[in-house]
Structure formats: structure tokens, C-alpha cells
Amino acid sequence: MGSTEPKVISGPAGYVLEDVPHLSDYIPNLPTYPNPLQVNPAYSVVKQYFVHVDDTVPQKVVVHKDSPRGVHFRRAGPRQKVYFESDEVQAAIVTCGGLCPGLNTVIRELVCGLHHMYGVTRVLGIEGGYRGFYARNTITLTPSSVNNIHKRGGTTLGTSRGGHDTNKIVDSIQDRGINQVYIIGGDGTQRGASAIFEEVRRRGLKCSVVGIPKTIDNDIPIIDKSFGFDTAVEEAQRAINAAHVEAESVENGIGVVKLMGRYSGFIAMYATLASRDVDCCLIPESPFYLEGPGGLYEYIEKRLKENGHMVIVIAEGAGQELLSESSDKQDASGNKLLQDVGLWISQSIKDHFAREKTLAITLKYIDPTYMIRAVPSNASDNVYCTLLAQSAVHGAMAGYTGYTSGLVNGRQTYIPFYRITERQNNVVITDRMWARLLSSTNQPSFMNTKDANEDNKEENSLDQLADGHCSEDTSVDEISHIFPAISC
């Protein structure tokens, strides 16, 4: 049996709902039960307990008066009827991939949400990522055992890359009687979760498979942002501030800070905007060059003559095409192993000024890459993690499956796996946010006019399609392919 067909529902005025799968789609005559929240003291003051069955959230909120209503996602939240009795639920939680601030908060709130809202007492923690399912490494999770884990970084369950064997994982789920699986991880992890859902559906198991998106790089599409991102940007300020202090304390001082961002430069961009001490931000989406007019060396010399010091922030994936050593090696998750661009660019700058003898510089290089992802989440991310976890629990109890819980335009939603895994979210260097950064740092764009015009043409054509300038016979499938390209 192939992949599940997307559940796309069309309505008047160009309304499109990209719905998520439900257990009742492949298991007939499932019994339902009243939602326990009706008698939950915590919800006694809530005027409206439940989300309306037709509540949806639009993917695009900036529209014109003649715009079609566009793509929507199902709104998250508790439903009047649930498809699991509390005593029936055997839940499992797993964390996969790299670390991120907030992982322990999500684990805690999943356990506490299941227990306090729905009376679920059987929750397993799968240790060590996906391979923990078939290595039979599990721990019992209770509200008391997870009470304080949000105060420390990392994940109390442990994590790993790779180890995904769909059949072995689903065999373990079936053998253990697990009927709710909460999978916390990035785009590769969500692809694995999608494969698990497809196999669960193929076997006809009553088991909700739910993803919670995690990536410190903020490179998952559709959602407003990833949990832990705010904390990472905040923690990066400490490294940038240290680089600034070092640079301004000496004549012609240069501080170089390398931040995370393998393919997406969001951390570097937002950390630069937040700091205001950065003179140049280099990200993977914006190619740069070193030599010649408008190049990085020329800009560095200009800034040093003007200010006497400067700070450079570079994302780990920036400038990889300039490094002499290229590698096709990959880690266990299939990510390309990158060269250390921070060390390379620091040495290149030193060599250039030593060779040219125009200025005597002092360069300090700071690499806080893994420090910023190992800290506990801040207050903003803690709140966000709580909303994500509770929304995931509400959806699973209501019988939804094969979805990721995420924030879209400020509202919690359920997004089908295929939308989360279809592409990466990247900084658009012809967008206003990147223009704001260029205005703040006053750095060159390192982009020639021809490239900028071509990018603007592409963006304008996508905007025209999104704003309703498509033919009257545009199909639902065509619309659903238009919107992914312009999201975020």
C-alpha cells in the first residue's frame, strides 16, 4: 500500500483545507467517548471548552480584497469527543537528532498534559532516539519523575541520529501495545515519523503518530518558528558581546563569531539584528566573495578605517563553496559534514592583511556553536513548548494522526507530515527582513544586480499566484503546490 493521499478539501472563494489523517479514515466503527476535560477543574472557568469542528487557520494572512481564501490548516485544541479511554492509552515519547533548548520542557508537558488533562497514567520514554524502540530501552515517565527536567538542557531521554528501521519500530509499537507515539525532532525525524505512520496505517493499528517539530536552525517550513530558537538567539548574544569587547579593546580588532545554521541562516540573522554590534553577517543563502571591489576584504578594511574595530557573524553553512576541501561525507541523519568555515575565514582574513600589509589587525575567533543549544529554554520558549505539547495531546486523544503540531500565524494547528517534510525553510535574501539586516549593519549585499533582479522576478511571480492572479480553472492540487513555495 502506497503513501496516504493528502486530505484536501475545497470550499467557496478559493478555500482549501489541507487536513490531517484520522484513525477513522482506515479503522471503521471506532467508538467515541466524552472528553474528560468536561469535568476537569482546570477547565471549569473556560467559557468554550472545545474547538469548533470547522475551525481552521490560514497559511497566508496578508491578502488583497480580491484574493482567494487560500490554504488553511486544522486548528489545534480539545474536541468534544475523544477516541481513547484514559485507561486504554499507552503513550510513548522519543527525541531524535541534535539537541535544542526546550526538549525537556516538551517531554514534561506531554507527560503532565496526558496525566492531568486526560488521566493517562501509562507513558513510556524511549531512550536513545529511534533505535531505542527495538533496542527495548525504555523508562516509565510520571509527572513526579519529570517535574524538574525543564530546568536543565539536553534531553532526559537521550537522542541519536539515524537508527530508523520502520518495520522494527512498528513491530515494537505493536508488541508493547503502544497506541500514541509522540516524536520530537527535525525534518529528518519528521520524515521518519511519516514512514512510521504509513506502516501503522497499513497494519490497521489504532495508534496516533504525532510529530513535534524541533530544529535550532528554524529551517522547518510552514510553522512560524521552532521551539528553542528564541533561546538560541538570546544565548548567541553573549558570544557576540564578547567578540565586540575583544575587538574594540585593541587597534584594528576583529571579532569573528560562528553560529549554527547548516543551510538556513536564521540564528545568525536574528542574533545580528538583536545585537546591533555586528558589522557583517554571512549566511548560507547569501553567497559572498573575498577579493576585489565589493568583496569582504575591502569591506573589512573600510570598516576598520572608519571605526577601528568590527564584528563578523558567520553561519556554519556559509561560504562552504569557497573552502578548498570539499567533502561528500554525511552523518547518520544524512546531513553533509561541513568544513569549519569559522576557522577558515579567520585564517583567510589574517593571511590577507599579513600579505597586503595595509593594516595590522588583531583577530579573535569565538565558536559557541554547541553552547547555545545545550542550555535550558528561556521563558518565551517554555510557554511555546507547553502549547505545542498540549496541542499534540489534544489531537492524539481526538483520533488525529500523521500530523505535526505547530504554530501558524500565531495559532496552534495540525499540519500533515508531507507539508513539513517537503522542503526547507530558508532566509529569503530578497525579503524585507534581510534588507533590514543590511540596513542595520550597512554591509554590502555581495549580490550583483542581475542576480537580485532574477530573484525578484521569481518572488513577484509567486506573489501574483498567491494573491489570486491565477486562472479560474486552477485546480486544488495546483493551489496547494503554489502555497508551499511562498510560505514563511
UniProtKB/TrEMBL annotation:
Active-site residues, Swiss-Prot/TrEMBL: 217 (proton acceptor)
Subcellular location(s) of the protein: Cytoplasm
InterPro entries membership: ATP_PFK, PFKA, Phosphofructokinase_dom, PKF_sf, PyroP-dep_PFK_TP0108
Superkingdom to which the source organism belongs: Eukaryota
Record region (Disordered): 445-471
GO BP: any one term: fructose 6-phosphate metabolic process
Subunit structure: Homotetramer.
Xref: PANTHER family: ATP-DEPENDENT 6-PHOSPHOFRUCTOKINASE 1
Protein name: ATP-dependent 6-phosphofructokinase
Species of provenance: Cicer arietinum (Chickpea)
